[in-house]
Design a protein that fits this description.
peptidoglycan synthesis; 167 residues; globular; single chain; ten-stranded mixed beta sheet; three-stranded antiparallel beta sheet; cell shape
Amino acid sequence: MSIVRVDCAAGRLTFGALAMDCTIGRGGACAAADKREGDGCTPIGSWPIRGVLLRPGKVDAAGIRLPWRWVRAGDGWSDDRADPAYNRPVRLPRAFSAESLIRGDDAYDVIVVLGHNDAPPVAGRGSAIFFHLSEGRPTAGCVAVEREDMLRLLPLLAPSDAMDIRP
């Protein structure tokens, strides 16, 4: 197992010899126990890397060792506390609130799904904590890096790897 390390205070992500700038949530970093839906905080802790979602036509999947799949029209992620599928992938449209995984910007061209609040999910404790592409601004609670950095890092990640987020 290898660890992707995120130093929130320094805005740096490291993996072995690779080091790069990263952005975190607009609310800064917070203890995972204090994480709440919509607070904009990036949860501190060590989160297993579950897999990758890729936007067709935007990135090449060659060399990726993590489990991955293409994002399809109608793919979403539940962020509604009342939804029995809270913090899980869902199909849109749906009766509950959910984030679309097809966005107008490029942030979700690559989505590395982190195992935050998923075993099992606790409603309201944070959903859709991803590692994705930076759009030059703080995230809603995720960790993000520039496209070039993600494309250098992605083929190095393996199924047993984790992301360790520290204040």
